[in-house]
């Protein structure tokens, strides 16, 4: 059943206000007939008999005198079945690859289904990305939400594509992939499509694209559509799903713009006060459910304005998610790829997903020692800038050597290079041998004897 109204109070940007509306629910699906076409929207505010609707389209050509708004007694839903794999959709779930519509027996609300927190299963299974800096130091765990913090012009797209090409579980089970892009340029969309095709994962991938010239309202729906598809594949069909969403900053800027149009009171840097809860409603859809085979692992990518990690989008994302991978402009300028700054990066779930029975028994020792040694490298480099390298102690010079080799041999790898975890750990031990044994404070004597060599009697 649907109700039709023509009493339009105001049109501003993608917002339409309709008067004398009764019995309409928040978030209800809306169909807008205007300019000889039909558009999709949803109810975002109900104030007595005035209803505010967001239209997922450009309303510049709309006329107040020529609009018919139809309300449905249900939220926006997507028809989903396994034929969505290999397909490309726009930000509101409409096919854009000339493959025809999706016909399914069931539809699923884009807002997601309620998940009992008690039913969540604690993530423990290691996902190998083939990237040493991630696998060894910021380990990705199945069911985790681990964002990538980047900056404009840095190779976060290349890293995301590489993760999708190389990601695998210890059990060698395959992933299905869901990729959502918001506010990207056409050449970026073509880059991802080409990368996925060359990697041979296109038939296991669902793409949702919102280009920079697409309606801004569509940008707010794209990640919801992507996560709805991921939940369907994971919890209904038993897939392990890896979701990559880029760029969350574009999403938040769209949210800020819409909030401003609505006349809402702004918070930090003009973002709405509900930014935290809005982001949480997306990020918390990742995870695992007890008794269900499938899982949803989420890697959101965000570009930090002016590389500011305290920016509201990065700051709030860090609170909600379980760590972060930080892309560093300084390392990138040195020619390091991937330029992951391991010191501000972390994975809060890795402590329970590494070690004997999960990765390798020495993994935690290696991780702890690399963090300590590389942090000492930064301190020594700062001192060297003041006093000069010639006046450094012999041990400090060893740290400088270690830092250079760590960046050039361990952090750096080709975009096509897929390193096994054992290879990354062995490489880390080889580099740690540069330092004197008595400087390796975070390693057990057993592992020192095994990988570094026995101490001189």
From TrEMBL:
The keyword Ion transport applies. Residues 130-347 form the ATPase F1/V1/A1 complex alpha/beta subunit nucleotide-binding domain. The keyword Ligase does not apply. CDD domains: ATP-synt_V_A-type_beta_C, V_A-ATPase_B. It holds the Pfam family ATP-synt_VA_C. Keywords: ATP synthesis, Hydrogen ion transport, Ion transport, Transport. One of its GO terms (molecular function) is ATP binding. GO terms for biological process: proton motive force-driven plasma membrane ATP synthesis. Gene3D superfamilies: 3.40.50.12240. Residues 352-451 form the ATP synthase A/B type C-terminal domain. PANTHER family: V-TYPE PROTON ATPASE SUBUNIT B. Belongs to the ATPase alpha/beta chains family. Produces ATP from ADP in the presence of a proton gradient across the membrane. The V-type beta chain is a regulatory subunit. NCBIfam families: PRK04196.1. This is V-type ATP synthase beta chain.
């Amino acid at each position: 059943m649907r109700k039709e109204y023509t009493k339009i109070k105001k049109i501003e940007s993608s917002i339409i206000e309709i008067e004398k509306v009764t019995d309409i629910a928040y978030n209800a699906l809306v169909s807008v007939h205007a300019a000889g076409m039909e558009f999709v929207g949803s109810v975002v505010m109900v104030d007595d008999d005035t209803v505010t609707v967001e239209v997922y389209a450009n309303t510049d050509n709309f006329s107040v005198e020529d609009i018919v708004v139809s309300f449905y007694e249900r939220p926006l839903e997507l028809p989903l079945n396994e034929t969505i794999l290999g397909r490309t959709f726009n930000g509101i779930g409409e096919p854009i690859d000339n493959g025809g519509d999706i016909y399914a027996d069931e539809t699923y609300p884009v807002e997601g289904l309620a998940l009992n927190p008690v039913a969540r299963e604690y993530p423990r299974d290691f996902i190998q990305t083939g990237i040493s800096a991630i696998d060894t130091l910021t380990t990705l765990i199945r069911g985790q939400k681990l964002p990538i913090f980047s900056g404009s012009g840095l190779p976060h797209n290349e890293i995301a594509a590489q993760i999708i090409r190389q990601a695998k579980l210890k059990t060698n089970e395959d992933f299905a992939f869901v990729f959502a892009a918001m506010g990207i340029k056409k050449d970026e969309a073509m880059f991802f499509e080409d990368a996925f095709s060359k990697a041979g994962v296109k038939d296991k991938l669902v793409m949702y694209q919102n280009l920079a010239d697409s309606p801004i309202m569509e940008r707010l729906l794209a990640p919801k559509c992507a996560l709805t598809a991921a939940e369907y594949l994971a919890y209904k069909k038993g897939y392990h799903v890896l979701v990559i969403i880029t760029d969350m900053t574009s999403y938040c800027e769209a949210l800020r713009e819409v909030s401003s149009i609505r006349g809402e009171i702004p918070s930090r840097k003009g973002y709405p006060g509900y930014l935290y809860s809005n982001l949480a409603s997306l990020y918390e859809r990742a995870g695992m459910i007890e008794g269900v085979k499938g899982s949803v692992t989420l890697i959101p990518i965000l570009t930090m304005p002016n590389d500011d990690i305290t920016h509201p989008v990065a700051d709030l994302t860090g609170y909600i998610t379980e760590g972060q991978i930080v892309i560093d402009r300084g390392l990138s300028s040195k020619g390091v790829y991937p330029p992951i700054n391991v010191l501000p990066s972390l994975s809060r779930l890795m402590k329970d997903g590494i070690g004997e029975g999960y990765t390798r028994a020495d993994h935690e020792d290696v991780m702890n020692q690399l963090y300590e040694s590389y942090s000492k490298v930064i301190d020594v480099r700062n001192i060297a800038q003041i006093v000069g390298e010639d006046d450094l102690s012999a041990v400090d010079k060893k740290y400088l050597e270690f830092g250079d080799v760590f960046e050039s041999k361990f952090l750096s790898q080709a975009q096509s290079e897929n390193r096994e975890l054992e290879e990354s750990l062995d490489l880390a031990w080889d580099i740690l041998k540069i330092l004197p044994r008595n400087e390796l404070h975070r390693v057990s004597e057993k592992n020192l004897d095994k990988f570094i060599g026995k101490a001189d009697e």
